[in-house]
Amino acid sequence: xxxxxxxxxxxxxxxxxxxxxxxxxxxxxxxxxxxxxxxxxxxxxxxxxxxxxxxxxxxxxxxxxxxxxxxxxxxxxxxxxxxxxxxxxxxxxxxxxxxxxxxxxxxxxxxxxxxxxxxxxxxxxxxxxxxxxxxxxxxxxxxxxxxxxxxxxxxxxxxxxxxxxxxxxxxxxxxxxxx
Amino acid sequence: xxxxxxxxxxxxxxxxxxxxxxxxxxxxxxxxxxxxxxxxxxxxxxxxxxxxxxxxxxxxxxxxxxxxxxxxxxxxxxxxxxxxxxxxxxxxxxxxxxxxxxxxxxxxxxxxxxxxxxxxxxxxxxxxxxxxxxxxxxxxxxxxxxxxxxxxxxxxxxxxxxxxxxxxxxxxxxxxxxxxxxxxxxxxxxxxxxxxxxxxxxxxxxxxxxxxxxxxxxxxxxxxxxxxxxxxxxxxxxxxxxxxx
Lengths: 179, 245
What we know:
The complex is a heterodimer.
Chain A: H1 2-5, H2 9-31, H3 34-50, H4 62-79, H5 87-92, H6 105-122, H7 126-136, H8 142-149, H9 153-178
Chain B: H1 3-10, H2 12-17, H3 23-35, H4 37-52, H5 66-77, H6 86-89, H7 105-117, H8 123-128, E1 139-142, E2 144-145, E3 154-159, E4 168-172, E5 181-189, E6 192-199, E7 207-210, E8 220-227, E9 240-243
Antiparallel strand pairs in B: 1-3, 2-9, 3-4, 4-7, 5-6, 5-8, 8-9
């Protein structure tokens, strides 16, 4: 990452090779459209390149930083209605998936990790899982979610917090067991 | 922070982390965070869960057009200072004496061990003179490639300043290994070659990988072709070698 911060394009290319796939997968999961996801990821990586000096190692991993930026950019796109027609579809699931062709060791490990996180998410009570998915993957605000689910805003926020707390505990337990 | 202020914002932690507060609400919550240790602690704890969420997504292949389009802009915008022009600082690799070795397979393993143990007393010593003498920031070191076995292949090692990040080996013109073989990297420390990762090669003959392991006390980075999954020790004469010092 220091090479990236020094403005080394080769190092940046390596960073894209490592994180571009997960970044595109996240954007595509949220918008449900290849072209829009491609635009978002390109914008996000250019923003990362142009603001590379801002990365702070003590604030978290490069992966979390990159995916956080992609997530914010995707939410911005969703809220600008760039993919208005896709929003509900993307919140309810993916209709079309193009899975990675080659299952390398790294990809296999990522799939294992994906299964663990999905198990933690799907292990939540339905109402908590639903609000988290609508917020994080659907890009909906808590007030929109409250309208959609016909429940008070405070209840939506409470379910989000409780759901994340349960996920955290479950993921921490899994890491503890495998350590 | 008063209890009332805390209670008012406490429920916002999850919504803030999930990105579901409006811009105004998010700004207010950030201001609250600076004054409320409890909420800041809660935020830190729950970040673990939110950071994990993108990992729940099924992998989807990015369109092939994405990377070239992105890298075209990045390379155009890249600074061209002395420290960030590795290609210009790479000196052409000299044909090494060890590339002249032509041994029968049965003798190759023993010869490889002897070469590694001796620190490459043949061409390796000459190749070391080709090192980029830059003592400042990032260094780019040309690899000495066995032209007999790898004609048309070039490689270089980009080494960041000590302790900053992993060195990156880049190759060009390298054929993909047979199905049951891999290219394996080694760090040569004294007489001991230490596994330093595998090198994946793309269909276009390019490959990049970050070395695992510390370059401190290593004399060279080596690449050999090994059985699938890698080997605990090299089983052939190195295909390429990057002298480190």
